Amino acid sequence: MIDTSIELNADFTQRVVVKPTEYVWESSPMPGVERMKLDRIGDEIARAAYLVRYAPNSSFSPHEHAGGEEIFVLEGTFYDEHDSYPAGSWLRSPHLSEHCPYTKGDGALIFVKVGHLHANAIKASN
After folding, report:
1. Phi-psi label, residue 120: left if phi above 0, alpha if psi -120 to 50, beta otherwise
2. Strand runs (DSSP E) across the chain, as ranges?
3. Nearest-CA neighbor of 32 among 104, 114, 115, 98?
4. Which of 19, 118, 119 is nearest to 64 (CA)?
5. What is the pLDDT of residues 57-91, one digit of tens each?
6. Within 13 Å of residue 66, how many CA atoms lie on the same side as its CB?
7. Alpha carbon of 49 to those of 8, 63, 104, 112: distances in Å?
8. DSSP summary character for residue 102
9. Which of 64, 69, 112, 122 is the most exposed place for a label (fewest CB within 10 A)?
C-alpha cells in the first residue's frame, strides 16, 4: 500500500513562520472557497490548520469533523445553520460535529484547526 499521507510543518520542535507574501492559496472542492495550508498531518482525515477564504455568497457542503474543529473569524462574517459569527468570533466544535458553512455579501477569512479534539486524534510522528 502506498503511503499518501501529507506532512506539512509537522515537526512541532521547529519554529515555522509563514508571511502573507508567502501564502499559496489552493482551490477547495467548492467554488469560491480557497485555503492556505499552515500545517497538516494525515490524508483525508487529518490534524491540520488552515486559513480559509470564502468569497461573498459562497458555501461548503455539509460535512463532519473527525477530531473536532476550531474556527477563529478574522474578517467578514461566517455562517452555518446554527448562527452567524462576525470577525473576532471563536468556535469550537467537538469530535464528529457537523455543519454546513456559508457566507453572505461580505465573505469571510477564517483560521481553522481540525482533528485535534479527540483522544484518538492524529498525532505528530516526531
Report:
1. alpha
2. 6-8, 26-27, 33-42, 46-54, 63-65, 69-79, 84-86, 90-93, 97-99, 108-114
3. 104
4. 118
5. 999 888 787 788 999 999 999 999 999 999 999 99
6. 9
7. 10, 17, 24, 6
8. B
9. 64
Cell numbers placing 12: 512541532
Domain ranges of the chain: 6-114
Q: Taking the model in full, what pTM does it have?
A: 0.83
- Considering only the C-alpha atoms of the chain, give the largest distance between any 2 of them, rounded to a whole number of Å: 45
Asked if the 6-114 domain carries CATH number 2.60.120.10, the reply is: yes
Here the cell at position 74 is 478574522
In angstroms, the CA 5 to CA 14 distance is 20
As a whole number of angstroms, the distance between CA 28 and CA 85 comes to 21
pLDDT score of 89: 98
Between 26 and 47, the more confident residue is 26
